[in-house]
């Protein structure tokens, strides 16, 4: 009885797949539409092509300052909950670290956009 049910389920599944293939609107198989899309790179080319280091650095800078926003916003909300001196020292130290980082990036000329 179990084998009969499994066979029947498999047959129904295959029939439904076959019917969906027959009546589908996509008849023409295009290489571009069938290939996976990965960030604009062609998956059929070698993966060891030269990559723009400037793009990578700008991405890292963006992530750093995105995390900075997620640190600063709760600090503003917690101003009333924490001792003012502790809050002040913490916020100033975070700001000094970020300012030193931005001066380092500026000194290394990582913020120059070259096209």
Task: Summarize the model shown.
It comes from Hydropsyche pellucidula. The chain has 115 residues and is mainly α.
What does this structure look like?
The chain is mainly alpha-helical. It has a domain at 52-115. The chain has helices spanning 2-23, 31-34, 53-77, 84-107. It is elongated.
Q: Which properties best describe this structure?
A:
about 65% helix; 4 helices; elongated
Strand-helix topology:
Blueprint: H1 2-23, H2 31-34, H3 53-77, H4 84-107
Global mean pLDDT: 78
Low-confidence stretches: none
Helix-strand pattern: HHHH
Class by SSE composition: mainly alpha
Q: Count the strands?
A: 0
Portion in helices? 55-70%
In whole angstroms, the N-to-C terminal distance is 70 Å
Strand content: under 5%
Number of helices in the DSSP assignment: 4
Question: What is the radius of gyration?
Answer: 28 Å
Tell me, what's the shape?
elongated
Major sheet size, sense and barrel closure? none
């Amino acid at each position: 009885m179990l084998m009969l049910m499994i066979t029947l389920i498999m047959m129904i599944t295959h029939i439904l797949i076959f019917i969906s293939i027959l009546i589908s609107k996509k008849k023409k198989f295009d290489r571009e539409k069938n290939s996976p899309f990965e960030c604009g790179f062609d998956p059929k080319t070698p993966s060891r092509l030269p990559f723009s280091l400037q793009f990578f650095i700008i991405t890292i800078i963006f992530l750093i300052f995105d995390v900075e926003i997620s640190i600063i916003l709760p600090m503003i909300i917690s101003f009333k909950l924490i001792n003012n001196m502790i809050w002040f020292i913490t916020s100033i130290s975070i700001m000094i670290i970020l300012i030193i980082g931005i001066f380092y990036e500026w000194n290394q000329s990582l913020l120059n956009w070259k096209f």
